[in-house]
Write a structure and sequence with these properties.
75 residues, 2 helices
């Protein structure tokens, strides 16, 4: 990610968007996870935590919005 010039990562359930400094989506990820499957949710949560940990280790102004599970529970 350090080479991507990432400004913002938006995590909304299974859809993750990566924005550059011009607020353009440069990467978009769609994970096919059944949120009723606890093992799948745990793996996606682990991935999210690893991404957040990496962002925080960059020590730049990259930020993130996290609503991994909240959005899915509304449906």
């Amino acid at each position: 990610m350090s080479k991507w010039s990432v400004h913002l990562i938006v995590i909304k359930g299974q859809n993750w968007q990566v924005y550059n400094y011009s607020n353009e989506i440069i990467y978009e990820f769609h994970f096919l996870i059944d949120f009723k499957n606890i093992e799948g949710r745990i793996k996606l949560e682990d991935l999210k935590l690893n991404v957040i940990h990496h962002i925080e280790s960059l020590r730049d102004d990259t930020s993130y919005v996290d609503s991994l599970v909240v959005e899915e529970l509304l449906y």
